[in-house]
Amino acid sequence: MASLCRQIIRANAFKGVLVNAARRGYADKLMPDPLEHATGLERKELLALQAGQDDPFNMKVLKKNAGTRENPTLVPSCFDARIVGCICDEHSTAITWLWLHKGHPRRCECGHWYKLTEKPVL
Ligand SMILES: [Zn+2]
């Protein structure tokens, strides 16, 4: 029901935009969809966002799990290695950087374990 209401509100708002544009005489000069102009990485990002993937380039901060050797924090990567920054302590003002290589889980200075997982290329 809420979805239907949102669709009706969006349709009415769009109709209002068209009516206002027609009154001003530039109805045929609306801005095109940004996806039509995007190329390269920008296009891939827009398509991924449209498909519901909100972090296509893995730029969000990962939440740590237990971080034990048996249950390491999984870090996705399209490559065989990746740099990981560990905020070892909640109040830490520095980040500990470490390289992670495919097939070799690694332990940070704080004792937290990380493991590289394969992520399919966009
Ligand atoms: Zn650490």
Furnish the topology, listing elements before pairings.
Elements: H1 2-24, H2 34-37, H3 40-50, E1 73-77, E2 81-86, E3 96-101, E4 106-107, E5 113-118
Parallel strand pairs: 1-5
Antiparallel strand pairs: 2-3, 4-5
The protein binds zinc ion (ZN).
Can you describe what's shown?
With 122 residues, this protein is of the alpha+beta class. The protein folds into two domains: 1-51; 73-118, Cytochrome C Oxidase, Chain F (Sandwich). The chain contains three helices and five strands. A three-stranded mixed beta sheet has the order 1-5-4, with no helix packed on it. Strand 4 and strand 5 form a beta hairpin. The protein starts with a helix and ends with a strand. 4% of the residues are buried. The mean pLDDT is 83. It binds zinc ion. Residues 86, 88, 96, 108-110, 112 line the site of zinc ion.
Q: Write down the overall mean pLDDT.
A: 83
Number of strands: 5
Spell the H/E element sequence. HHHEEEEE
Biggest β-sheet: strands ordered side by side in the sheet = 1-5-4
Rg of Cα set: 23 Å
Low-confidence stretches: none
Instruction: Give the termini distance in whole angstroms.
Output: 35 Å
Please indicate the percent range of residues in DSSP E strands (runs of 2 or more): 15-25%
Q: How many alpha or pi helices?
A: 3
Q: Please tell me what the overall shape is.
A: elongated
Structural class based on helices, strands and sheet pairing: alpha+beta
List the ligand species: zinc ion
Largest sheet: 3 strands, mixed
Assembly context of the chains? single chain
Number of domains: 2
Helix content: 25-40%
